[in-house]
Amino acid sequence: MDAPDPGPRWDAVEEDAESTAAAYRERGWTAIAGHPGQVNPVADAARIDVLLPGSEFDAALSAVDDAAIDGVDVYAGAADGVAYRLVVATDEAAQVALCVPTYLESDDLASLRAAAEATGALTVRLRPLDDRDHVEIAIDEPAVFFDAPEA
Q1: Of the candidates 48, 52, 49, 41, which has an alpha carbon nearest to the alpha carbon of residue 17?
Q2: Backbone phi, then psi, for 30, in 5-degree steps?
Q3: What is the tens place of the pLDDT at every residue in 85-105?
Q4: Do strands 30-33 and 122-127 pair parallel, antiparallel, or not at all (unpaired)?
């Protein structure tokens, strides 16, 4: 199985994740910027699997250990048939932010959207290569992910 190509703007999306996390850190928050190795849609589960390097995954897992993610913002862009989303999941009280860049082929969006609308949520699942654990970010209003303006 070939991994999807992250496309021509992927570096810029990862830089956006870094700068967003840095802005949270400047405010005293614990903020993790992800650098996914792969991003895979799992349409029948209304889920996006995001493979993170082990140390980044461990940092994300530790950050959410005492947090209850209660806010999700999505920033969007697109280029050459690839839909980019920067998912920023936060817990105001614990001052924790996870900044997760994603990329999906535009063709995958329709089936993923249909599944998310049917279940009422879209899940972004962070996982390490050895799949020993995972961190899930629930987007309870999937329209914020799919209806985000394409820049």
Answers
A1: 52
A2: -85, 120
A3: 999 999 999 999 999 999 998
A4: unpaired
| Burial classification of residue 87, based on how many CB atoms lie within 10 Å of its CB (0-12 exposed, 13-18 middle, 19 or more buried) | buried
**pTM higher than 0.90:** yes
When pLDDT is cut at 50, 70 and 90, the band that residue 151 belongs to is very low
CA 86, 92, 93, 94 torsion-angle sign: positive
Task: Decide: residue 54, CB within 10 A, 0-12 exposed, 13-18 middle, 19+ buried.
Answer: exposed
